[in-house]
Amino acid sequence: MDEIRDQFIKAMSAAGTTVYVVTTDGTAGQHGVTVSAMSSVSADMDDPTLLVCIHHLSSAADAIMENKAFAVNMLRSDQSHISDVFAGRLSEAESKFSHLNWHKLKTGVPILSDALVSFDCNLYQVERVGTHYIFIGGVVSIHHPSEGDALVYSKRSYGRFQGIA
Ligand SMILES: Cc1cc2nc3c(=O)[nH]c(=O)nc-3n(C[C@H](O)[C@H](O)[C@H](O)COP(=O)(O)O)c2cc1C
């Protein structure tokens, strides 16, 4: 049974994915987690929608459900250290949120001021699939401060997008 699981994880690691920090704040407090599982869902709704998949044991998961809002902050290629902090890979002697610049848009959740782009979302829908929640967010505002390149993760390493031509 574990064989297909291991094959699945190895196969998925071949994908090149963009890296995001999902943040939330509200009555459940401030939480953030690094994710690669993000997708646009639909631009043609009252609020455009996107989805993120987060493990059910992540403290961010329960907080998003209680706070009913989250932001998706797309990291730049020079921000892999931020990905590591929010993935719990570095020491957390201080808050994950310290030493970074944050501001708020409409929902009041933390927006990373120098992310490549940030989506401010109200929680629209939640589905639990096995170990993970799929959070669908309705995007109410977008912060697009810089023109840099996205941070990419593939084969368990960070990199940056490079055009072919
Ligand atoms: C590049 C990268 C991508 C990740 N993508 C996801 C993801 O899509 N969903 C998820 O639940 N965890 C993902 N993780 C793992 C979480 O960031 C990690 O488990 C984190 O420690 C959870 O934090 P918490 O348990 O303190 O909330 C990813 C980690 C890295 C480094």
Proportion of strand residues: 35-45%
Shape by Cα distribution: globular
Largest sheet report: 7 strands, antiparallel
Indicate the low-confidence ranges by residue numbers. none
The CATH homology group name = Electron Transport, Fmn-binding Protein, Chain A
Radius of gyration: 16 Å
Q: Count the helices. How many?
A: 3
For the record, the CATH class is: Mainly Beta
Mean pLDDT rating: 96
CATH fold-level assignment: Pnp Oxidase, Chain A
Query: How many domain regions?
Result: 1
Structure description:
The structure is a single chain. The chain has 165 residues and is α+β, with helices and mostly antiparallel strands. The chain has a single domain, classed as Electron Transport, Fmn-binding Protein, Chain A (Pnp Oxidase, Chain A), CATH 2.30.110. It is built from three helices and twelve strands. The protein has helices at 2-12, 59-67, 80-86, and strands at 17-18, 20-24, 31-35, 38-42, 49-55, 69-74, 102-103, 111-112, 117-129, 132-143, 151-154, 157-160. A seven-stranded antiparallel beta sheet has the order 3-2-6-9-10-5-4, with helices on both faces. It is globular and about 40 Å long. The model has no long low-confidence stretch (mean pLDDT 96). The chain binds flavin mononucleotide. Flavin mononucleotide is lined by residues 19, 33-37, 53-55, 58-60, 83, 87-88, 153.
